[in-house]
Write a structure and sequence with these properties.
heterotrimer; A: 327 residues; alpha+beta; five-stranded antiparallel beta sheet; four-stranded antiparallel beta sheet; 12 strands; 20% strand; globular; B: 742 residues; seven-stranded mixed beta sheet; 18 helices; 25% helix
């Protein structure tokens, strides 16, 4: 870890001003940034500590939604009674991630911005276009059991590791951003993340010095919400595949459905294709299979992760069946 | 006291965070911090190494590379015990495996050392490495012997004829992955020079080995190396010998004449310690229709590092297990440019029983026979290879008692036939067998004039309970309450033991302490017999009872402290010891093992193939238990290791670089709490009078032996899918799952 | 020169960032120390305050051995910087009891043999203390059937899930669960 200077930001505007200098980065929970700094993968020269900024509230929005301050800890979001009752998929996603200790430290904004867990990204001696643009992708042709099956390309097959963001994608969350010039904008979470393309090092549409200040959840959609995470270990492991599903069914017909996958792509993967195959169709396994086929139509395996395609299909089918039954 | 479920005497220190491990000693003052820089190629040589930036970096006191490292002793293969041998580092420009140390940076703070380590630039000329086991498996050679000095190959009867003539045959290939011990305390060492001597705090299972190896590497008198290893944060084989962090700390401390400490990072532990080799195991079983085995063959191929041969005794597992007139075992090694193979908990039995006990399950399935009954039917009367009697084998009792307690009769009779909601349910079982070893170990027991006792040995407690059981043995041996016995472990200046490893530690050191106590008793009684001042004068020492701090003969009694104080105001000591098993006729005349039977129930998610253990039981025969509380903990811990071996643990080599890809604890999966539901261990009453005077045998590894196979067999019973490529992960089951229904 | 130019020059010369004088409140004691900004809370505790009860197992938040309580909440002290904890109330294993006066969770671990080598144990115990407070506060976990339910029943499955951020390679898990169950049944103190 190279040396850096440290300052604690006292207000949000001061924070974005402070981080505008070259080599500066925000730190909040630190659970991913320090992990990477110890391995010389992240290398900031100046850290702006935003963990104590007054962005820790969860507020009611006029439209019936919630606004979650970016500095709210993952455990506080998961335990919030409004989140638990109105957005259980988010609470379920959060408590399926990491460990109790990490959730107590990790912030909402930091969770959104966590980097991939690709082992070649973590190995500074390996080629990685995300860490070192132009150096190649060692995961292609390497050990790629945990890698992407959707939206990947020749430059990068990494996945986004967040559970929380997958639930938020299904909930149509919007990310609230504060610019260095004081401007505020909101970006839909599905637009916030980028696919790797030729620039896998650029993971979001965040502008330089821009700060996530909040995540806005619109009023909850109708239907039953379920987050299902599949992994080798029963706990404390990133998803091989996860599904956030929200299904509203009425007299055996699906009225509305939301589907997002985790562990399959460079970003939380909202599947409009699956949703299209569900809406207005009977709530039967045949329909879920069609939705799974639609969701995985463009899926490509890399060898070790080929199984993820069928695993994602099966996980989606079961999760949809459970959500539809309970809705 | 022996046999009582005494709480750990070192427990209060551990639960209060006051037990000091190797990196945590401050007696020598503020140390400097060393960080290891590892090679980023797997084979080749260093053609340039740029250290100036690091040397100029703040706080840096030294950068050591092969260009300036002191000359060291070489690995002398003629030294019989490998962990005594020198472990030289930074010996030249050649790189033998990925991650091999190429530099040590020493600085005033850890942060400075770590940062400076990043400034070292190494230029390599890459060579063509041999990294992929599968690619080179066919180039295997025959090692002279395998681990523990066992024969490489054995043959009894005529295997080919026996197998050919068998009515039912199993001939399958099983593969197991590279696995790591991964104790939670990293390998770490603090070395403080004191005049000509070195004070070494190191996380070590065998203090004597650490002392000898350091002395041989640094080419100094072992008497000048004072090793302290009072607490060891887990070993599981990875701390039997010392490693590069110890040698580098010692070299730097001598050069700088200042205390230096070095700990490996978790990632480095995956490159610098060695691992259980991957194995390819062909198992052939030929049986009659009634289940009796006619022929068993177990042929194993593993990797070895070209410079340090290590052959895990994986096929030896099947040598004493089942009766069969025709038998073969063999071991082959394929040299690869990877870290050395090494002892990982239950070397031999862990991978060996995964294969053999899976094959036995396949045989039971092929015969349509209950797997428990199949084992019972093949129980041998004599050790089938050595032709000698077993000292104390109660495997059938373990099987019957285990089946009864587990409710084995409720096992789904056909695979993939029981479903509870989303879960496919299966039962599996397997047997455990583990050789019991004895080695030379000594302990000194001192009685002080105040009637307290001190036990001194270089034996270690790596979580095994040594402090506690030696307290019990000494308290019994001298008739003292436990709180008047103090145990002093892990110091090289104490009498030499064989340390903790191979499950031999408890029996060795307990026997040595028991004998030391007996010698002390005899001496004190002899003195009292002739002592006019003693209340015991003239009474028959054979009738003496040592109890509650008193010595009684008939109606006469005298406090032990007075016996000591009168003749030995400065205290009195005696040593006891055990001998190498080769010098003990019992170990030649008997087959001495521990045994067990594992029973597991698993659930497999019918949609996703996630595998979750539901419950597990082990019933064991281990001779006499010294402490049921600590013993149960070790057995349960071992069983859980088996769960990890069956379902999770796998270190993956990238065949392009020779690096372990998943080299941290987020990616190399070991069981977490949520993976482990009810696990119970039951130990049969016993006493193995052939093993030693206490009748006790080792238990540190028995729990892992066969437990993975019980889980694997349960997975088969749940799904009908037989996975022979361990670990059993969900992608291997997915294709065989039932189709999804509503 | 701009601040970023100064950063670049300082770093190219390998110059350290200046030490920061901070005050940490550890186990109800005010401790003043000068830290390198890079120093993790874990290393500040272990190497500067010489309180080595808090353990370094992986240094990357993957084992839980470094767990301490900050303002009553369990966290991995390896993944946070000491400079970030000015004025926070930090409790380590040493603050939960000493060998002659063990705290209730420490005592339960001893009685149930909830450890072997002892290295992950301080982290397990700190984690258990934090976890029991989370349960008392009604926080859901992955083992909670309905996250919306306002109260948590502390089943063994709940304990296992909530303790899964603490790896015990000796695999004392069943005994750890028993110790925590005892602690919960006995209540605080």
């Amino acid at each position: 870890m190279r040396s850096f200077t440290y300052e604690r930001a006292t207000d949000t505007q001061a924070a974005v001003t402070a981080v505008a200098r070259s080599g500066a980065k925000f730190i909040s929970g630190g659970t991913n940034l320090l992990d990477l700094m110890k391995l010389d993968i992240e290398d900031p020269s100046h850290l702006v500590d935003i963990s104590r900024l007054p962005l820790r509230d969860i507020e009611e929005l006029p439209d019936g939604g919630l606004r979650i301050g970016a500095q709210t800890r993952n455990s506080d979001v998961a335990a919030d009674s409004r989140v638990r009752t109105r957005y259980p998929v988010l609470s379920e996603a959060l408590v399926s991630g990491a460990s109790g200790q990490l959730r107590n430290k990790a912030s909402t904004g930091g969770n959104l911005l966590q980097r991939t867990r690709c082992p070649y990204f973590y190995d500074t001696a390996a080629g990685c276009n995300k860490r070192n643009p132009g150096s190649g992708c060692a995961a292609i042709g390497g050990f790629n059991r945990i890698h992407a099956i959707l939206g990947a390309g020749d430059s990068c097959i990494a996945t986004h590791p967040s559970d929380m963001a997958v639930a938020m994608a299904a909930l149509d969350a919007e990310i609230e951003l504060l610019g260095a010039d004081g401007s505020v904008r909101r970006v839909a979470i599905t637009d916030f993340y980028r696919l790797p393309g030729d620039t896998p090092q650029i993971e979001t549409v965040l502008a330089p010095a821009e700060m996530i200040t909040a995540v806005a959840l619109p009023s909850p959609p109708p239907g039953r919400q379920i987050y299902r995470k599949v992994r080798d270990r029963a706990s404390y492991e990133f998803a091989l595949v996860s599904v956030a599903a929200i299904v509203s069914a009425d007299q055996g017909t699906i009225r509305e459905a939301r589907v997002a996958f985790g562990g399959v792509a460079h970003k939380p993967w909202r599947s409009i294709e699956a949703e299209g195959a569900l809406t207005g169709r009977p709530a039967t396994m045949a329909t879920y299979r069609d939705a799974a086929e639609a969701a995985m139509r463009d899926a490509v395996g890399q060898g070790d992760n080929d199984f993820k395609i069928e695993l994602a299909r099966r996980t989606l089918c079961r999760t949809l069946a459970q959500a539809a039954r309970a809705s | 006291m022996i046999g009582q479920a005494m709480q750990r005497v070192d427990g209060p220190l551990k639960v209060a965070g006051r037990a000091a491990y190797a990196y945590e000693h401050w007696e020598a003052g503020q140390p400097l911090y060393g960080c290891i820089v590892g090679a980023t190629i797997g084979k080749g040589r260093i053609i340039g190494i740029e250290t100036e930036d690091a040397e100029r970096a703040p706080g840096v006191r030294m950068v050591m590379t092969h260009l300036n490292a002191p000359e060291q002793g070489i690995r002398d293969e003629s030294i019989p015990f490998e962990y005594w041998r020198a472990q030289p580092v930074l010996t030249g420009p050649d790189i033998h495996y990925y991650g091999e140390p190429v530099a040590l940076v020493v600085a005033e703070t850890f942060e400075q050392a770590r940062a400076a380590a990043e400034l070292i630039e190494v230029e390599y000329a890459g060579g063509r490495g041999r990294f992929a086991f599968a690619e080179h498996e066919g180039e295997a050679y025959v090692p002279k012997t395998v681990n523990a000095g066992l024969p490489t190959d054995t043959s009894v009867g005529d295997f080919d004829a026996g197998f050919d003539g068998a009515a039912v045959k199993i001939d399958q290939l099983y593969t197991t992955p590279y696995e790591f011990s991964m104790p939670i305390e990293p390998n770490a060492c603090l070395v403080a020079p004191r005049d000509e001597d070195l004070i070494v705090y190191v996380s070590s299972q065998i203090v004597d080995a650490a002392q000898a190896s350091i002395a041989n590497t640094l080419r100094i008198d072992p008497a000048r190396v004072h090793v302290f290893s009072p607490f060891v944060g887990g070993g599981f084989g990875s701390k039997l010998g010392i490693h590069s962090e110890t040698i580098l700390a010692a070299l730097a401390a001598r050069e700088l004449d200042h205390p230096v400490k070095v700990a490996m990072t978790r990632q480095q532990i995956f490159q610098l310690i060695g691992m259980r080799s991957t194995s390819s195991q062909r198992v052939r079983l030929g049986a009659e229709r009634d289940g009796r085995l006619a022929a068993i063959a177990h042929d194993v191929t593993m990797h070895t590092n070209p410079d340090v041969e290590y052959a895990e005794q994986t096929a030896a597992t099947s040598r004493s297990l089942y009766a069969a007139p025709h038998r073969l075992t063999s071991h082959r090694l394929t040299p690869l440019d990877l870290p050395r193979g090494t002892d990982v908990r239950a070397p031999g039995e862990e991978p060996g029983l995964l294969a053999v006990e899976s094959a036995m399950d396949e045989l039971a399935d092929a015969l349509g026979m209950d797997p428990v009954e199949l084992r019972i039917r093949n129980e041998p009367a004599l050790d089938p290879e050595r032709g000698v009697p077993y000292s104390d084998r109660h495997l059938v009792e373990c099987l019957r008692e285990g089946a009864r307690r587990f409710g084995w009769e409720h096992r789904p009779a056909t695979p993939s036939s029981r479903r509870e909601g989303r879960w496919l349910i299966g039962y599996g079982m397997a047997v455990a067998i583990r050789v019991h070893l004895q080695g030379p170990a000594a302990a000194r027991v001192r009685l002080e004039a105040d009637g307290t006792a001190v036990v001194q040995t270089d034996m270690t407690d790596i979580g095994t309970g040594t402090y506690t059981i030696l307290t019990q043995v000494a308290a019994d041996g001298l008739g003292l309450p436990a709180d008047r016995v103090r145990i002093e472990l892990g110091r090289s200046d104490n009498p030499t033991s064989w340390g903790s490893g191979g499950s031999w530690g408890a029996a060795n050191s307990s026997t040595a302490v028991h004998r030391a106590c007996a010698t002390l008793r005899e001496k004190l009684l002899a003195e009292a017999h002739d002592d006019a001042r003693s209340a015991l004068r003239g009474l028959d020492p054979a009738d003496a009872v040592f109890s509650d701090g008193d010595v009684r003969i008939g109606g006469a009694s005298e406090p032990l402290s007075e016996l000591v104080a009168r003749n030995h105001p400065g205290g009195v000591a005696a040593e006891g010891e055990t001998r190498f098993m080769g010098d003990e006729p019992n170990y030649t005349n008997y087959s001495i093992h521990t045994y067990g039977a594992h029973f597991a129930e698993v659930g497999v998610d019918a949609d996703t193939a996630e595998i979750r253990l539901r419950r597990m039981l082990g019933v064991f025969s281990v001779g006499r238990l010294l402490n049921p509380k600590t013993a149960r903990s070790q057995l349960i811990g071992g069983m859980i290791w088996g769960v990890g071996a069956a379902l999770e643990e796998e270190a993956v080599v990238d065949p392009r670089s020779g690096a372990f890809v998943n080299r941290d604890l987020a990616q190399y999966l070991v069981p977490v709490n949520a993976d482990i539901p009810d696990v119970e261990a039951v130990v049969l009453d016993g006493y193995d009078d052939k093993a030693n005077v206490l009748g006790a045998k080792g238990i540190g590894e028995l729990g892992i032996c066969g437990s993975g196979a019980a889980v694997a067999n349960a997975v088969f019973n749940a799904t009908g899918v037989r996975v022979r490529d361990f670990p059993i992960t969900l992608e291997k089951l997915l294709p065989g799952l039932p189709p999804m229904d509503a | 020169m701009s601040a970023s130019d100064t950063d670049a020059m300082r770093r190219s010369q390998g110059e350290p960032a200046p030490l920061s004088a901070i005050t940490l409140n550890v186990n109800d004691q005010v401790r003043r120390l000068e830290v390198d900004p890079r120093t993790s809370l874990l290393d500040a505790l272990r190497e500067q305050l010489r309180m080595s009860g808090t353990k370094k197992g992986c240094d990357h938040g993957q084992c839980g051995a470094c767990t301490v309580l900050i303002n009553g909440r369990r966290v991995n002290s390896c993944l946070t910087l000491a400079v970030m904890h000015e004025d926070d109330e930090i409790v380590t294993i040493e603050g939960l009891g000493d060998p002659d006066h063990l705290g209730p969770v420490q005592r339960a671990f001893l009685e149930r043999d909830g450890f072997q080598c002892g290295y992950c144990t301080p982290g397990q115990i700190c984690s258990a203390v934090g976890m029991l407070a989370e349960v008392a506060a009604g926080w859901p976990s992955h083992a909670t059937a309905e996250v919306a339910a306002p109260r948590i029943t502390l089943t063994d499955d709940e304990i296992r899930e909530r303790m899964s951020g603490n790896i015990c390679r000796c695999a004392a898990y069943p005994n750890i669960v028993a110790a925590i169950r005892d602690s919960a049944e006995r209540g605080p103190g």
